[in-house]
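User: Run a structure prediction on this.
Assistant: Running it now.
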Amino acid sequence: MPPDLLHFEDFFAGQKLAFDGRYEVTREEIVAFAREYDPQPHHLDDDAAKHTMLGGLAASGWHVCAMAMRLIVDGMFGKAASAGGAGVDDCRWLKPVRPGDVLRLEVEVLETRAPASRNDIGFVKCRWDLFNQIEQVASLVSTPMFLRRKG
């Protein structure tokens, strides 16, 4: 494994990570994701969506999570000794994500934990804040695992 990858020891509580990556949301991908995984009118049809509480076509919350995942893989996990994840503790969809939105991600490390039972991995609890070009649209708390440095 390349030594320049981020490892568990590179993270600390209070650390804030911002990424250069951006994700442009298209109508076509919103509808395609919805057809496959969340076929509700507010994710599938512009006219039907106008008459829902969202007031227009919007990405499924699960699609929003997938887009955030893409951003964090490109911005952090792809440059780290990632060892998977222990789960998501909290997920909030705060505002609709619309066609044409350009998403960006900020991450704050909430805590780190090196389990006594394993000397090869550590847990890094993080809050992911997802923004469009104007405001925050989603937040989630997850606990990815990273390899620890040897020696």
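Residues 8-26+59-147 form a domain with the Thiol Ester Dehydrase; Chain A fold (CATH 3.10.129.10).
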